[in-house]
Write a structure and sequence with these properties.
This protein is α+β, with helices and mostly antiparallel strands and 313 residues long. The protein is built from six helices and 16 strands. Strands 1, 7, 8, 11, 12, 14 and 16 form a seven-stranded mixed sheet that branches. A three-stranded antiparallel sheet has the order 2-3-4. α3 runs antiparallel to α5. The structure holds zinc ion. The site of zinc ion has 8 residues, from α2.
C-alpha cells in the first residue's frame, strides 16, 4: 500500500535549525517585507509559538508590528489546543494551562488543572463529559473549548510553514504572503482549509517541533499533490496542514487532474501493538466566526498512559 512517505520527503524541520541569535546586516521582515528602520525588531519572536510548549527556537525575521498582529492569532490558537497541554501537564510561557470547558445548560463543566504537578480532573456533576469503559480500561473525556476563531489558527499554521521555506521558495511563492496578510479568507481554491488532528496514544513531545514535507513529485499521471505539507507536533498531538497551492502546482495544473491530499500515517510514531484505532479529527480553518469545538480525548488506564509515554523530543 502506498503511503505518505512514498509521496513526500522531509524538507526542513525546527529540529534541524538553530536559534537565530545573530542580527542580519539588513533587517527585513519576512512577513510584511518591510525593512529596518521603518519597522523595529526589538522583540524576540519564536518560530514555534510558545503556546505549543516551551522552546528556545527564536527567529530574527519577524518585525515588532507583525509580532503584535500574530499574537492576536496566537490567542485563538492557544484556546483551541490548551486542553491537550493541560492533560499532559506541559508547560507554556504562562505555565501549564488550566482548561475549563464552556458552560452547558445541563451541568457543571469539566475542569482540568495542574496542582502540584499532578493532573486533576474535576467533573462536577456533569457525567455527560465522562465515560469510563471498564472492559477497555479507558476513560473518555469530552472537552468543549472556549470560543476561538479558526481563521486565526490558519494564519499561525501558515506562518510556521513560511518560516521553514527557503528564501528562494519564498521568492517563487510570493502569493503566500497575500494569503497570510489578508483580513478575510481568500476563497479562490488555492488554500486547503481542512486540517487533520491526530492524537498519539503512546508518545508525546515535551518540546514542540514542526516539520515541513515536500512532494517528491507534484504530478503523478493525472494526480496532483500539494507541494508542501506541514506537521506540527506538540504534546501527544499532530496537526497536518497543507500549505496553499504553490507556483509549481499552478504551472502543472490541468482541470482534468485530481488533487490528492495524502494523510500522514500518525500510527508509525505510535506503538502499533497498543493501537485499536487511529484517533483522527478534522477541522475547517476558513471560519471567521468564533466557535467552540467538542473534542473527545481517550485515556487508557491500566496502560499507565502517562508514565509509559516515551518522551520523544
Ligand atoms: Zn513585519
Amino acid at each position: 500500500m502506498e503511503s505518505f512517505f512514498d509521496f513526500y520527503e522531509l524538507h526542513n524541520s525546527t529540529n534541524k535549525i538553530l536559534p537565530f541569535r545573530s542580527s542580519p546586516s539588513i533587517k527585513r521582515c519576512r512577513f510584511c517585507n518591510e525593512q529596518y528602520p521603518s519597522v523595529t525588531f526589538n522583540n524576540v519572536p519564536h518560530l514555534v509559538p510558545e503556546l505549543f510548549g516551551r522552546n528556545n527556537l527564536t527567529s530574527n525575521f519577524e518585525c515588532d508590528k507583525c509580532n503584535k498582529k500574530f499574537q492576536k492569532f496566537e490567542n485563538d490558537t492557544a484556546t483551541m489546543i490548551q486542553h491537550y497541554l493541560a492533560l499532559l501537564n506541559i508547560k507554556t510561557k504562562k505555565g501549564t494551562p488550566t482548561f475549563q470547558s464552556v458552560k452547558i445548560p445541563y451541568g457543571n463543566s469539566t475542569i482540568l488543572k495542574s496542582i502540584n504537578n499532578s493532573r486533576n480532573l474535576n467533573f462536577g456533576t456533569n457525567l455527560n463529559d465522562f465515560n469510563y469503559d471498564e472492559q477497555e480500561k479507558s476513560l473518555t473525556i469530552k472537552f468543549r473549548t472556549k470560543k476561538f476563531r479558526p481563521f486565526s489558527v490558519y494564519k499561525i499554521f501558515l506562518k510556521m510553514g513560511l518560516s521553514l521555506l527557503t528564501e528562494e521558495e519564498l521568492k517563487t511563492n510570493r502569493h503566500y504572503f497575500e494569503f497570510l496578510n489578508s483580513e478575510e479568507p481568500i476563497m479562490n481554491g488555492m488554500q486547503i482549509w481542512t486540517i487533520q488532528r491526530y492524537m498519539l496514544k503512546t508518545k508525546f513531545h515535551l518540546i514542540p517541533n514542526v516539520n515541513l514535507y515536500r512532494a517528491k513529485k507534484t504530478l503523478i499521471n493525472n494526480t496532483e499533490f500539494p507541494e508542501y505539507v506541514l506537521l506540527i507536533n506538540f504534546a501527544n498531538i499532530i496537526f497536518q496542514f497543507f500549505l496553499p497551492i504553490s507556483i509549481k502546482n499552478i504551472n502543472e495544473h490541468n482541470d482534468e487532474n485530481r488533487l490528492n491530499l495524502e494523510l500522514f500515517p500518525s500510527f508509525v510514531l505510535d506503538d502499533i501493538t497498543r493501537l485499536k484505532e487511529i484517533d483522527m479529527y478534522s477541522l475547517e480553518l476558513n471560519e471567521t466566526n468564533k466557535i467552540s469545538i467538542t473534542d473527545k480525548v481517550i485515556l487508557y488506564y491500566e496502560k499507565k498512559e502517562t508514565s509509559q509515554l516515551n518522551k520523544s523530543i
